[in-house]
Amino acid sequence: MDYSSNFAGPLNVAPILPESIVLVALMAVLVGDLIFGRGAARWLPYVAIAGLLGAIVALCYQWDSPHPLALLGSFNGDDLSILFRGIIALSTATTILMSIRYVEQSGTALSEFVAMLLTATLGGMFLSGANDLVTIFVSLETLSISSYLMTGYMKRDSRSNEAALKYLLIGASSSAIFLYGSSLLYGLSGGETNLVEIAAGMAAAGSTQTLATAIALVFVIAGIAFKISAVPFHQWTPDVYEGSPTPVVAFLSVGSKAAGFALAIRLLVMAFPLDTAEWRLIFSTLAILSMVLGNAVALAQTSMKRLLAYSSIGQAGFITIGLVASTEAGFSSTIFYLLVYLFMNLGAFAGVILFALRTGTDQISDYAGLYQKDPLLTLSLSVCLLSLGGIPPLAGFFGKIYLFWAGWQAGLYGLVLLGLVTSVISIYYYVRVVKMMVVKEPQEMSEAVKNYPSGDENINGMRPLRAGLVLSLVATSLAGILSNPLFTLVTESVAHTTMLQPALVQPQSAAAEQPQVSLVLEPVFARSE
Q1: What is the DSSP letter of 505?
Q2: Helix 395-409 to helix 483-495 angle, to the nearest 10 degrees?
Q3: Among 328, 509, 520, which residue's Cα sits nearest to residue 414?
Q4: What is the number of domains present in the chain?
Q5: Is residue 130 classed as helix, strand or coil in its secondary structure?
Q6: Helices 17-36 & 79-106 angle (0-180, nearest 10)
Q7: CA–CA separation, 145 and 285 (whole Å)
Q8: d(Cα 31, Cα 407) in Å, to the nearest integer?
Q9: Which of 70, 198, 203 is nearest to 133 (CA)?
Q10: Helix (H, G, I), strand (E, B) or coil at 208
């Protein structure tokens, strides 16, 4: 029997090698926990991190693979999916570092938590390359159900239970809506599940401009918007962020969001190639609502976790600008921003976790005078927050520059101007926290900071947490300096992704494509000549 045919033929399991490594790490965590019990909690998280790093190395070796299609065409391991899968795996590895002390202090089992986190990672990685409706839905539910379980993992905490229940109910409704839209696509295409064949089947049947197609498009986008926390599908975000374990929130804010954008790009570009103007119009509306509401409501928040929740909603609006542009620079800027958002957002959550472990609070007013007790935490949290606000020369500044420039080249003048205004608004509430930590006089120090403990680095789990904090600080700083080579790498991934090429809008021909661009923009902003 010729086993090599499995790797080069229709089955071709080679592209899912990174997921296989994560699966082996997941099994090692489960079996190790069963055999060694709670004593294995000291080393099992590092087995999971080793597996995730091994998956990232495997992804690097698969760059520009000549045979990216796997599992009879239901999975595409192209360069675009490689970047998204790398972002998800890296976010999980950093989240595990942040979770060790937090979970142990809560008195719950760390190994089970890591296993659920790896399961969610598997779902997100498969979702990033899913090329088939069945694969998409199974991957989406694997990610979602694991997220529900992690949200309610602190069973003794009533807020965690409430957050899990809200997340489950709203998430189940979102999954049902997405599934109904997928079933319409299946019917309209004549019984196809592969995304390319769906588009071909709909075009052959002449059903690309029907009411059923419009309903399918709206329902599918509703499911995606839930995953990326876009307004008006954001209702779960503030309550879930506030009530859930903070490491879970950190993963949801990066890993789940990255998987959602990967799904959006692949599904919309491949299944709706003749409806580009329509889904660009819908995402333009989502971007406007997310930027305005997310940043405006964040101004009134007094809790750091709720502040970062509304910040996440606003950030989803910024990222959507690149998706609406639908140019090579637009898709590249979306991926680049998600890459740098990984470090600056996880760094902010690592700071929140460390402060909460030492003080038991996440109120912004309790951060007053923190620089006098913990300069490293103050520096790391300040840099990450300022980067989220887009202050130069940090990574977030270059990420927004690339997004806004891609939008401007594509003729999205209204979206870019609104993005600039709301970005300035976001700087205010980020700087407010930094000022609270740095500017306060000694006599204005909060009670939480006055009682701030020190010298607990030797406690199990504190060193990995600080390592994750320092890693995020260094990566956020260096990503700004290395923004050009990183953006070049991302642009190459978009250029090498075959499925994106027919959908790209050329910026230089924007004037020639005036009907398409105006269809997207005029219902939202009156374009001035």
Answers
A1: P
A2: 40
A3: 520
A4: 1
A5: strand
A6: 20
A7: 29
A8: 49
A9: 198
A10: coil
**Number of neighbours of residue 357 by Cβ within 10 angstroms:** 18
Cα 451 to the center of its chain, rounded Å: 35
Closest CA to 493 of 60, 16, 124: 60
- Both tokens assigned to 381: 């949290």
Tell me the backbone φ, ψ of residue 415, rounded to 5 degrees.
-65, -40
Tens digits of pLDDT across the chain (529 residues): 344 444 445 677 888 999 999 999 999 999 998 888 777 778 889 999 999 999 999 999 998 888 888 888 889 888 899 999 999 999 999 999 988 888 888 778 888 899 999 999 999 999 999 999 999 999 999 999 999 999 988 877 778 888 888 899 999 999 999 999 999 999 888 888 888 888 888 888 775 567 888 899 999 999 999 989 898 888 888 888 888 888 899 999 898 899 999 999 999 888 888 778 889 999 999 999 999 999 999 998 888 999 999 999 999 999 999 999 988 889 999 999 999 999 999 999 999 998 988 888 888 888 888 888 888 899 999 999 999 998 888 899 999 999 999 999 988 999 999 999 999 999 999 999 999 888 767 777 888 888 887 766 656 667 888 888 899 899 888 888 888 888 988 888 888 888 777 767 665 444 344 333 333 333 333 333 3
The answer to whether 310 and 366 have CB atoms below 8 angstroms apart is no
- Answer whether residue 171 is part of any domain: no
User: How far lies 136's CA from each of 130, 172, 498, in Å?
Assistant: 5, 16, 19
pTM: 0.90
Angle at 53 between CA 52 and CA 58, to 5 degrees: 95
**In the numeric block, which tokens belong to residue 13?**
């399991």
Instruction: Read off the tokens for 149.
Output: 């379980």
Q: Is residue 120 part of a domain?
A: no
Return phi, psi of residue 457, to 5°. -65, -25
Distance of CA 41 to CAs 101, 115, 220, 461, 489, Å? 11, 12, 40, 10, 37
Instruction: List, as one string, the DSSP characters of 43-99.
Output: THHHHHHHHHHHHHHHHHHTTT-S--EETTTTEE--HHHHHHHHHHHHHHHHHHHHH
d(CA 397, CA 318): 12
> Which is nearest to 354 in space by CA: 468, 465, 243?
465
Which structural domain range is residue 289 located in?
A: 274-453+460-497
Establish if 427 belongs to a structural domain: yes
Centroid of chain to Cα 84: 9
As given in the structure block, the two tokens for residue 261 are 């954008």
Query: CA gyration radius for the chain?
Result: 22
Sign of CA dihedral 62, 67, 72, 73: positive
- Is-contact 320 287, C-beta < 8 A? yes
Cα 480–Cα 245–Cα 396 angle in degrees, nearest 5: 15
Cβ neighbours of residue 308 under 8 Å, at least 6 residues apart?
A: 241, 249, 253, 345, 348, 349, 352
In a domain, 103, yes or no: no
Element (H, E) at 31: helix 17-36
